[in-house]
Predict the structure.
Amino acid sequence: RDVAGMIHSLHYAAMTTLIHHGNSHPDELALLEPWLEAWYVYVAGSYLKAYLHAMKGSPLIPEDRTELAIMLRCFLIQKVVQELGQELNSRPEYVEIHLRGIELLLRECRCS
């Protein structure tokens, strides 16, 4: 759960940057978005790789990569939906960040 939370936080940071920058420079959004998504994928992947290396052999981590992927994806979906609900109640202008997170998770599901 904590790893999924950290990965979600990285996505949130990238998308918050996109939204804030886009508010003042809307003409640069198309250029910036793929770079921020690439940054997120790289940093989240590096974080996950380092975590799995450090936890190698731990009974907390499934040995089967498919089981691990399913577990991580479930925790990520849970996290993004939970935060979507919180944003709907407190900061509706940030809902787009979580909707993009859901979209990214669904794209990954189709690729796997």
User: Anything to note?
Assistant: The longest helix spans residues 29-54. Helices lie at 2-24, 29-54, 65-90, 95-111.
